[in-house]
Write a structure and sequence with these properties.
By secondary structure, the protein is an alpha+beta fold. It has a single domain, classed as Butyryl-CoA Dehydrogenase, subunit A, domain 2 (Beta Barrel). It is 26% helix and 28% strand.
């Protein structure tokens, strides 16, 4: 399972980029139809993190997969959102990105400090 950023298209109308919680594999661990998965392979550092790429071809997901804090889809496939501007809505979705960046920087600073301490 992964969080995927993808276009939300309803009744032929594109409502822009939204976040979805998507199953990539079935209960046996096999990749689902229409899903392709590729491992990023060996990385310089942080090899304990399993990074990969995935892409979809003609995959439909249920409306329950939409992470719907800022927008939702009704049972009749109508789009609703209290935020009318699509750019502002996307900005709200991405508002947590700086915190990830800064937490990564804190981890990096810690590793540099430990490395310097043990190298001297």
């Amino acid at each position: 399972m992964t969080v995927c950023w993808a276009r939300l298209i309803l009744k032929g109308t594109d409502y822009g980029i939204h976040a979805f919680l998507i199953h990539l594999r079935d209960s046996r661990g096999d990749v689902l139809p229409g899903v392709s998965v590729k491992d990023c392979g060996h990385k310089m550092g942080v090899n304990g993190v399993d990074n990969g790429r995935f892409w979809f071809r003609n995959v439909r997901v249920p409306k329950t997969a939409l992470l719907n804090k800022f927008a939702d889809v009704t049972d009749s496939a109508d789009y609703i959102s209290p935020v009318k501007d699509s750019d502002a809505r996307f900005g709200l979705h991405m508002s947590w990105s700086p915190s990830i960046f800064f937490s990564d920087m804190m981890v990096l600073m810690f590793f540099v400090r430990v490395s310097k301490r043990h190298a001297l």
